[in-house]
Amino acid sequence: MPSHYTVAALYHFTRLNDFADLRGPLQDMCAHLDLNGTILLAREGINGTIAGSEIAITEIIRFLRADPRLSSLDYKLSHASDKPFYRMKVRLKKEIVTLGVDGVDPTETVGTYVDPDDWNAIISDPDVVLIDTRNDYEVEIGTFRGALNPNTQTFREFPEWVAQNKDTLKKPKVAMFCTGGIRCEKASSFMMENGYDEVYHLKGGILKYLETQPKEDSLWDGACFVFDQRVAVEHGLEESHYDQCYACRYPITEADKDHPAYVKGVSCHRCHNKMSEDQRARFAERQKQIALAKARGEDHIGRKA
């Protein structure tokens, strides 16, 4: 792998009835190109984040788009100084982003896509209710000004939150956003299927907004959580100062590491009193193996500590 990594976050909703047959060739191509990361395949489409050389990323996008059903595959590029992933997984799933509601299909019903250049105007409209469709640990370190936080731990909880907050969502327009665009696209389909007529979602997600919008004009506050070893990125997709607790997965700061409950690779102030002794022992052993691998100059196949 190179010393400088190109990271591609990609997804596309489309009908892939033969998605199981696509797994083998895709896994082989990723191995050939020395790519690492995770790609999910389902009947509703493809979703993933992968990293490798710039040439390898270009080749895998070309490979995927050769399938007519994926010719308009959406992807966002960023960069990492350290290896973001340690292995390559192509997985078969029921959904490429799990909402858990039958009949929600963005290829049939979807909200209005909003380009990042137009996003500030949309979310500044007093007739708009703005919803962050990400999970609580993602929202905690950054979000758009004025956005509602559903305080969900998984995307599956979003439909219940909508059902319980109908009074809050009574404004004429609904605008939604997420990291790369996939969750808010599916959420927009769900909202429209449930009677919300004027629904907007940020095309390309927060990542595209942070990549393209000048910081001085931005309505984004904080950092954007990403699901790899960088933990989070900021404007211009620069790597942030956050680390991560690899027990509970919450982002943590250097100040958080000074808390008495923080044990590297084992616990932080949020989770230290929520885990069993068996979990604590397993995490401690994992951290030991990471340290041993590092001492040998090897990659530990797992999370960075």
Q: In words, what does this structure look like?
A:
The chain has 305 residues and is α/β, with parallel strands linked by helices. The protein contains eight helices and 15 strands. The strands form five sheets. It has a five-stranded mixed β-sheet with strand order 4-1-3-2-5. The chain starts with a strand and ends in a 10-residue tail after the last helix. It is globular and about 60 Å long. A hairpin with a 6-residue loop joins strand 12 (224-225) and strand 13 (232-233).
**What percent strand?**
15-25%
- Summarize model confidence as the mean pLDDT: 93
Helix content: 25-40%
Spatial extent as radius of gyration:
20 Å
Instruction: Report, as a whole number of angstroms, the end-to-end distance.
Output: 20 Å
Q: In order across it, which strands form the biggest sheet?
A: 4-1-3-2-5
Helix-strand layout with pairing:
Elements lengths: L4 E9 L5 H14 L3 E7 L2 E8 L1 H12 L8 E7 L7 E5 L19 E3 L1 H8 L4 E5 L3 H4 L2 E3 L13 H7 L8 E5 L4 H12 L4 E5 L2 H8 L7 E3 L1 E2 L6 E2 L9 E2 L6 E2 L24 H19 L10
Parallel strand pairs: 2-5, 6-10, 7-9, 9-10
Antiparallel strand pairs: 1-3, 1-4, 2-3, 8-11, 12-13, 14-15
Question: What's the gist of this structure?
Answer:
This protein has 305 residues and is an alpha/beta fold. It has helices at 19-32, 54-65, 116-123, 136-139, 158-164, 182-193, 205-212, 277-295; strands at 5-13, 36-42, 45-52, 74-80, 88-92, 112-114, 128-132, 142-144, 173-177, 198-202, 220-222, 224-225, 232-233, 243-244, 251-252.
Index terms:
alpha/beta, four-stranded parallel β-sheet, 305 residues, five-stranded mixed β-sheet, 28% helix, 15 strands
